[in-house]
UniProtKB/TrEMBL annotation:
This is Outer membrane protein beta-barrel domain-containing protein. Residues 1-30 form the signal peptide. It comes from Thioalkalicoccus limnaeus. Keywords: Signal.
Length: 267
């Protein structure tokens, strides 16, 4: 059994055990609806690697800094909504990014001794990560709370790349338009809650793991926040990972990691 599969099975077992062991200590809550809106900023670094399976062998590394993402950013929305009544609740989280950029590269090597050619590359990327899940309060003590989470996560990508060759001859050079729009759905199971060390300080946490169209996806968050009458302000570190195994084409490991600052409004 490979390490990724062992990790996923161990984490699923731990989460299920936590749910059943903590269920007996659940405290009753007031039977009223509670709502929360979360707005935050999170611009992670992107890292990963691709291993080709088509006979070429080897792998390729991917490393994009948060500064690179900000420089290519056209539009972004990051936010979430949660609701609860008694021990039951649900939440959703949406990340939408619209990126674009261009680059120009001289290609003299293609025509040795001849006029220089250059390729203009323009790319566009729209990315959507949407999580929707139900939750049940399995632990509610003065210093800690824990909710079992069950739901799904969607990853949608819309990628386009336009390549244009320019040079003195011939007058018309070929162009190319490449596009892909993969969509991936994964079921997830997890745990979320917070520690309350004292006063109005909180230490929120979240972890989930899942699979479906991807071989493995998992997410983890830890943070520190301060609670006001109207809601919370939180500084957190978040990691979101995907593993795609395609024996006919390539294996892709992709991870998003970075700090984020958010505000939660409760009503």
């Amino acid at each position: 059994m490979d390490p990724v599969t062992r990790f996923a099975q161990c984490l699923r077992t731990w989460l299920l055990a936590a749910v059943f062991l903590a269920a007996g200590s659940t405290a009753a809550r007031a039977d009223e609806w509670l709502f929360a809106v979360n707005l935050y900023g999170w611009f992670p670094s992107v890292a990963g690697d691709v291993t080709f399976q088509n006979g070429a062998g080897g792998g390729r590394d991917l490393d994009v800094s948060a500064d690179d993402l900000l420089g290519a950013l056209d539009f972004v929305f990051l936010g979430g909504f949660a609701m609860r009544k008694g021990n039951w609740g649900a939440f959703t989280d949406l990340i939408y990014l619209d990126l674009s950029g261009s680059d120009r590269q001289l290609l003299n090597a293609l025509v040795p001794g001849g006029p220089g050619l250059q390729v203009d590359a323009a790319f566009e990327l729209e990315s959507t990560v949407w999580t929707l899940a139900g939750q049940y309060r399995v632990l509610d003590a003065p210093q800690v709370s824990a909710d079992a989470v069950l739901g799904f996560r969607y990853l949608g990508l819309d990628m386009a790349l336009d390549l244009t060759l320019e040079g003195p001859l011939p007058p018309e050079l070929p162009t190319a338009h490449l596009s892909r729009n993969p969509q991936h759905w994964d079921g997830i199971i997890g745990m979320r809650g917070e520690f309350r060390p004292g006063g109005d300080w909180i230490l929120p946490y979240y972890v989930d793991v899942g699979a479906g169209d991807s071989s493995l996806t998992w997410q983890a968050l830890v943070g520190v926040g301060y609670r006001f009458d109207w809601g919370d302000v939180t500084l957190a570190y978040r990691h979101l990972a995907y593993v795609f195994d395609d024996s006919a084409k390539a294996d892709l490991d992709l991870g998003f990691s970075g700090a984020g600052l958010g505000m939660t409004f409760r009503f």
